[in-house]
Amino acid sequence: MAEPDMDNKAVKEVSDYVSRRKLVIDGEGHLKGRLASVVAKALLLGRVVVVYNCDKICITGKFKRSKLKWFKFWGQRCNVNPARGPFHYRAPKAIFYRCVRGMVPRKTLRGRKAIRNLKVYEGIPPKYAKTTSLVVPCAMRVLNCRPDYKWHTIGKLSSDVGWKYGPVINKLNRKREEKERIALKKKLKIKQLKYISRVQTRRDTSKLEKKIRKTINQAHFKTFDQGYTLKPAAKPKPKKTKASKAAPKIAAK
């Protein structure tokens, strides 16, 4: 098998992503097949890959055509014993998992170890809500498809073929977004209070510095061999008023 051309932009992006030990990828806005190929390559290189928002992964083409393809697949079964498979998954994460599994030699020891390192989720699980996620540019729909190209999500297809947990996922996402909004407000409020306290402290210190400079300017220093001594400033003489000038002087007897 020929080595891939490393001048290819897509190959470079894949090599950059698979260089990490664990990849947390947000599947929203990605194309199913392109993302699955990058994930499969990372798994075969020994990486742990987490993909969430599988219900928002995109499929190109008309929705009706995708639905007919799925129902055609749904009709396939083993005549001898249908329990042997194939199994027709309806959940978005299972559909994407099956897509990645088809790109991995799962019947070998290497493939079995690789596929165990794949974790897929619908929506955003709480333990990955605050984790920095990645995107794969070579698999993004907006970068690889024309604007007028038809597309739909796996979640829409799954809902039409029997998946019933779409509303539940949307409800959980709304709750998570509301919590994040409240947490962001608290964070901004704390930041604002810290800024106000910092400004107030700076003003207080500037006033204190002015007082210190004033006292230093009023003081007089004299140097001696032993060190420095501080001489207090001379007291100002009282001013004579007009009444004191007009008063007659009485000689002491």
UniProtKB/TrEMBL annotation:
Gene3D superfamilies: Ribosomal protein L13 (3.90.1180.10). Residues 244-253 have a biased composition (Low complexity). Pfam families: Ribosomal_L13. One of its GO terms (biological process) is translation. Keywords: Ribonucleoprotein, Ribosomal protein. GO terms for cellular component: cytosolic large ribosomal subunit. One of its GO terms (molecular function) is structural constituent of ribosome. NCBIfam families: L13_A_E. Belongs to the universal ribosomal protein uL13 family. This is Large ribosomal subunit protein uL13.
